[in-house]
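Researcher: We're teaching a course module on how sequence relates to structure. For the next exercise, students receive a sequence and then see the predicted structure as tokens, so they can try to spot secondary structure elements on their own. Here is the exercise chain.
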Amino acid sequence: MEKNILAGLEPQKVFEFFEELSRIPHGSGNTEAASKWAAAFAEKRGLRHRRDAVGNVVIWKDASPGYEDHPAVMLQGHLDMVCVKDNGVEHDFLKDPLDLYVDGDWVKARGTTLGGDDGIAIAMAMAVLDDGTIPHPPLEAVFTVGEEVGMDGANALDVSGLKSRCLINIDSEAEGILTVGCAGGARADIAKTMQTAPGNGNACTITINELKGGHSGVDIGKGRVNANRLLADYLSTLPGLRIVSLHGGEQDNAIPNRAEAVVLLTGSQLEEAEEKISDWVKQWKANFPQDADWYLVMKCSGGKEALSAEDSQTVLQLIRETPNGIQSMEPDLPGQVRTSLNLGVLRLEKGELRFSFCVRSSSGAEKERLFQEIRAAAEKYGASYSQHGEYPAWEYRKDSRLRETMIRIFEKQYGKKPVVETIHAGLECGLLADKLPGLDAVSIGPDMVDIHSPRERMSVASVQRTWAFLLEVLAAL
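Model: And here is the predicted structure for the students to work with:
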């Protein structure tokens, strides 16, 4: 990738550090190099720092002159990103740098997710730590790993030595919104081993592509269609088919925009399948006009090993009988989702079936009920069930000096009040609040669109304004 793609963008240091991170593969579970890079940043500048066994990095910086007696402030974000690419894009997230480019006001990555979630937090925190002229209280920069796959880093974080009880989390995606609470959640997995056998007929690859996809929390209320559920619905219209393989979605917390099945069909079954495609697609698009640019294609070749017709129906019934999407709305917050789940990953390879859900809720009881429903469906069809990566909800704090300070500065800078809200997505603030009693936290961030999808993009102008806002807040704390 060409270097210095973002040179000339302001704030210069923020985009410089963002581009440095983009050259380092840092998908969830592959953050060792990024973690070492962050520690080397601190080492080079003589800043006290700590890097733990899982890869979390904490960096301390003394207060600027005149702020020595002010309470410490934590700047926090996560080093890992969601790795999703467009169909046909040749990109290895384990070794290839992101291919950044600037399109007007937007920073994008060709064919892949951008990693603005949450690379911009790392870049902004580093820019503050790197600058000796910015007024600020004592700072504790906390860079976690594994946020996108269950907040593993925040769970493992040793908070000894952290004095902050004031946290600015930079992991939100909409300028002008102060996030002050979030849903809790976890991942739920279903698995089952099934027998395959040789079969005759046509091995047909059925692909659903170009759905919008998106973040399974932020975008779940926008009517985005789940490619895994859509594919299962179409396959269920084809009696007698035998499934060879299924492949849909890449991350449990990303709404899948593509799914593919290979199935065995006899001559008459193939004719019926081809006849149904047009009407079935039209019906779905009519029901979901907000996500209607997708398509379904079918290509056929020779026979392969496949599940029996009976087991194939078991797989489809299991997919369709597990809940998916919005389950309830917040009764006191119009338009806000309370409980949801997303079938983000679907795999069937050589008889090994696996699929994964991201479950979210601001209600502990409703979240637990969803786990029970998924477990019951798995048991009904002889599959195993497991859950992991559970994280708590971040409860709204009635009295918040930080929130009131940020509201006042926002009104001064923008000439209007910010939106103050809780969100239906996971943030590490809840885990950190559990570990640091009395923590006063607010999450902010610049405008980013379509995160967790290859269309992810970040506004340059919004980064500039958010940076100016952050500096004003630090100066006031």
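Model: If you want an answer key for the exercise: Residues 267-287 form the longest helix (21 residues). The chain has two domains: 12-183+393-476, 186-391.
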